[in-house]
Amino acid sequence: MSQIIFYGCGNISQTIIKGLILDGCTKTNILYIDRNPLNKKKLSRYGIKSADESKLSTTKNLIILAVKPKDALAACKEISTVISAPQLISLVAGIKIKSLKKSFSSKASIVRAMPTTASTYKKGITAIYGEQNSEKLILNTKKLFSRVGISILLKEEEEMNNFTGLIGSGPAYFFYLLKIYNEHLLNLCDGKQRDVDAIIINFLEGISSSISDGIDLNEAIDLIASKKGTTEAGINSLKDNNVLQLFEKGIISAMKRSKEISDEYK
Ligand SMILES: NC(=O)c1ccc[n+]([C@@H]2O[C@H](COP(=O)([O-])OP(=O)(O)OC[C@H]3O[C@@H](n4cnc5c(N)ncnc54)[C@H](OP(=O)(O)O)[C@@H]3O)[C@@H](O)[C@H]2O)c1
C-alpha cells in the first residue's frame, strides 16, 4: 500500500496530519522525516512514526515537501540521493516547479499545493498547480487535500503567488484583526478569556452562516447599519481612513513577497 511521507514535519504538515486522521486515515499510512527534536516529540505523541530514508525510494509513495523556502532546494538534493523520479507535492511558498525539478531526473513528477492551517479541522482551502505531464499526481493531490477541506486547481503557476498572499496567509490577517475584539471584549467580560472565546466563536459562525445562506456582502452590511446609527458611524470612519485600501495593500505585499521568494530561490 502507498504511504504519504512528510519531508519536513512542522506547523503545516502537522495540521494536515491531524486533518487526515480526523478523516479516518490510518496512522501507519503517514510517515515523516524531520530533523527538529521538538517536532519529533509532538509527532510521537500523535502516534506518527518517522520514516527511514529508504521509504523515499518506493515510487508509489507520495512525498510531501514541507520545509521553509530557504531549506527547500537542499531538501530536494537530499531526496534525490535516494530517488531520482519521485512523486513529490511541494507546499513550499514561492519556489517554482522548474527550480525544484533541477535536483531530479526528467521523469520526476512535481506538483505544488498551498494549503491553509484550518486543514486540521477539515476546513482547509488548498490551491493546486501542476504541469501538463503530471495529471496523475494532480489528481492524487486533489484527492488527498479534499480529505482535509476544499481544493482549487490553478491554471497558471504565477497564480500561486496571489493565492498564497490572499488565502494561504489569509487566516493570519483575520486573527490579527480579532486581536482588537479580544482586547475590548476582555474588558466587557471581566478578563474571562473563555467568555470572550465563546462570543468570538458565535460572532464568526454567525458570519459564516450568513454567507452559507448566500447573503450579498453589501446587503449584509445594510442589514446591520441604520441611518445615523452606530454601524454607519463605524463604517464611515473605516471608509474615511481608507481601511479597505490599507487592508488590500497588506494582501498585495504578501502576494509580492511570494513572487520575490520565487526569484530568490531559482
Ligand atoms: N505554516 C503555514 O500555514 C503554511 C501554509 C502553507 C504552506 N506553508 C509552507 O510550508 C513550508 C513549511 O512551513 P512550516 O510553517 O510548516 O515550517 P516549519 O514549522 O519550520 O517546519 C519545517 C520543518 O522541516 C524541518 N526541516 C527543514 N529542512 C529539513 C531537512 N533537510 N531534513 C529534515 N527536516 C528538515 C525543520 O527543521 P528545523 O526547525 O530544524 O529547521 C522543521 O521542523 C514552508 O515552505 C511554507 O511556505 C506553510
From TrEMBL:
<dbReference type="GO" id="GO:0005737">
    <property type="term" value="C:cytoplasm"/>
</dbReference>
<comment type="similarity">
    <text>Belongs to the pyrroline-5-carboxylate reductase family.</text>
</comment>
<comment type="function">
    <text>Catalyzes the reduction of 1-pyrroline-5-carboxylate (PCA) to L-proline.</text>
</comment>
<dbReference type="InterPro" id="IPR000304">
    <property type="entry name" value="Pyrroline-COOH_reductase"/>
</dbReference>
<keyword id="KW-0028">Amino-acid biosynthesis</keyword>
<dbReference type="Pfam" id="PF14748">
    <property type="entry name" value="P5CR_dimer"/>
</dbReference>
<dbReference type="Pfam" id="PF03807">
    <property type="entry name" value="F420_oxidored"/>
</dbReference>
<feature type="binding site">
    <location>
        <begin position="66"/>
        <end position="69"/>
    </location>
    <ligand>
        <name>NADP(+)</name>
    </ligand>
</feature>
<keyword id="KW-0963">Cytoplasm</keyword>
<feature type="domain" description="Pyrroline-5-carboxylate reductase catalytic N-terminal">
    <location>
        <begin position="4"/>
        <end position="94"/>
    </location>
</feature>
<dbReference type="GO" id="GO:0004735">
    <property type="term" value="F:pyrroline-5-carboxylate reductase activity"/>
</dbReference>
<dbReference type="InterPro" id="IPR029036">
    <property type="entry name" value="P5CR_dimer"/>
</dbReference>
<dbReference type="InterPro" id="IPR028939">
    <property type="entry name" value="P5C_Rdtase_cat_N"/>
</dbReference>
<keyword id="KW-0641">Proline biosynthesis</keyword>
<dbReference type="InterPro" id="IPR036291">
    <property type="entry name" value="NAD(P)-bd_dom_sf"/>
</dbReference>
<dbReference type="GO" id="GO:0055129">
    <property type="term" value="P:L-proline biosynthetic process"/>
</dbReference>
<dbReference type="InterPro" id="IPR008927">
    <property type="entry name" value="6-PGluconate_DH-like_C_sf"/>
</dbReference>
<feature type="domain" description="Pyrroline-5-carboxylate reductase dimerisation">
    <location>
        <begin position="157"/>
        <end position="260"/>
    </location>
</feature>
<keyword id="KW-0560">Oxidoreductase</keyword>
<keyword id="KW-0521">NADP</keyword>
<protein>
    <recommendedName>
        <fullName>Pyrroline-5-carboxylate reductase</fullName>
        <ecNumber>1.5.1.2</ecNumber>
    </recommendedName>
</protein>
<comment type="pathway">
    <text>Amino-acid biosynthesis; L-proline biosynthesis; L-proline from L-glutamate 5-semialdehyde: step 1/1.</text>
</comment>
